[in-house]
Fold:
Amino acid sequence: MAYKSLLTVATSSEGLLPVVSAAAQIAVRTDAHLDALVLGVDRTQIGYSYVGSGAVMIAAAMERAEEEARVTEKAMNDAMNAQSPDLRYAVDTAVTQLGALTEVVAARARYADLVVLPLPYGEGRGVEDEAVIEAALFEGMAPVLVVPPKGMATADPRRIVVAWNQSREALVAARRALPFLRRADNVQIVVIDPPTHGPERSDPGGLLCQMLVRHGVRAEVTVLAKTLPRVSDVLVRHLRDTNADLLVMGAYGHSRFREAILGGATRDMLEKAEVPVFLAH
Structure:
């Protein structure tokens, strides 16, 4: 499998270049097409108001969203034009209310092999950025590469850490990340405090390692103790110690009616991320 259809989504002109550069590098490296969806988001939530004022507020909010979309669209085109001349891309723009954002993003993410997005937390980020990631992962069923503000050093990460806990999500993430894993020099399957019961108690991570090696991945298993309060803390420390270029992990969530929102473990990892994080659900 290769990534042939890439998607990136922008809700703001801030911090656009590192994400576009990462997506463009991958697209050129894999001879893929990069689609960009620019969204102007109406973030207002109309509740109780004086008669007639709701319509005025909605109209004003949509005008602001349209203006933001125009600014972001220009920034997106400028960022795309700054990339390799070999890049094949298209930019589409839409305006949506926050409540309808999930449907808009998911409709595009379903047909993408990989969605490349910025970190949803930090300066300049809003609730709509987290909603975009949730829409791509849970409703769009697409793998997501989350790029930190400092960007992605290369389209071919040389040192990759796979967070393994025997879950369905972690297995899906490892399978979806195979195009990256097969080109890496070293892939560490990291198991933190492996269970003392279950099918992998005698060989934690062994079956996953075997599967990846048969795909030509240079993989090995590393077992770590949970010496810090959270698993995410242990992972972050290990990423630093090994100078890793990419983390691959399952994306966990819980239901919010028919949708899903990022679970605590996924949120913790993204809040601390210093390297790109590859997520799949």
Q: What stands out?
A: The CA atoms of residues 37 and 92 lie 5 Å apart. The longest strand covers residues 33-42. The chain has nine helices and twelve strands.
